[in-house]
Amino acid sequence: DIGMESGHGGCLMGMVFEAYNRGIITKEDTGGLDLTWGNCEAFTELVQQMIERRDFGGKLTGDMKDVARALGAEDLLVHVKGASINIHDYRPRFATLLGQIIAGTGACHQVEGPWLRFDEIGAKVEEVGRKPEMVFETQKKKLWEDNLGVCMFACQGVKDVVPLASKSVAAATGWNDFTTEDALRVGERTINLMRLIAVSRGFTRSDELDVGKRLLEAPTGGPGAGVTIAPYLEEMVNRYNAAAGWDLKSGCPTQAAIKRLGMEDVADWLGVS
Fold it and tell me: Which of 3, 94, 107, 271 is the least crowded, having the fewest Cβ atoms under 10 Å away?
């Protein structure tokens, strides 16, 4: 009812509360709000201030990185390319976290990652160790399902779900020659369309690795304690880009990939060469 996206609001509030509890900001900054951990009343009031764009809450609206910079709390912000991450801690799950980092619309579920049952798309079980490559393969499946307008949760774990869905589309449309390969190609074209649009709007290699420092820290407890993707991230991104047929230096789809997918007209229209 209040129109606030929970992932964005949660990441922002976590940063603000931590900044307060670390002494980076004080009651003088918050207009008297006591943002001690667990103060639900202060949290509720701050949310209301943000909605109404008044008092301290009014300063928290807008670009997350700008807000963090203004508060002196950049290192506390959980983000990917300046967008909030889904409200889970993916740090020990490298495939899932990589999927969030390379997603074409900021951190979001464009990849099923380790949840994938490999018989859904015909991948061999021994390929599970190839995380960056399988992130790309499962992203094609997920974005095919997004184009189809079905929920990923309804498709996970269903044996041969991609062949079944492509046959259903063929039956419904009369495209009798529409195959599983065509379905995954729809997903791959979508991946490349998002990247071509990003490149046309100034996306560079530095944006590829624009990840909040907090996401690269190792958890201090639980099964993932001491584990971080940080030493492997650049290599994993490079391997993903190689699997996608993208230039490793720029992150832009290569001419070979564009031609293979029949997207020359799109690249020309966007001015990407």
Answer: 3
Domains in the chain (CATH in brackets) are 6-77 (no CATH), 94-211+230-270 (1.10.599.10)
- HSE-CB of 95 using CA atoms within 13 angstroms: 18
Q: Classify residue 117 by burial, with Cβ atoms within 10 Å: 0-12, 13-18, 19+.
A: middle
Mean per-residue pLDDT pooled into runs of 10, the chain (273 residues): 75 94 97 96 94 92 91 93 84 89 84 56 52 90 92 83 92 93 96 96 90 92 91 94 94 96 95 86
End-to-end CA distance of the chain: 44
Query: Cα(66)–Cα(74) distance, rounded to whole angstroms?
Result: 9
Name the residue with tokens 């969030």.
Answer: 100
pTM recorded for the entire structure: 0.87
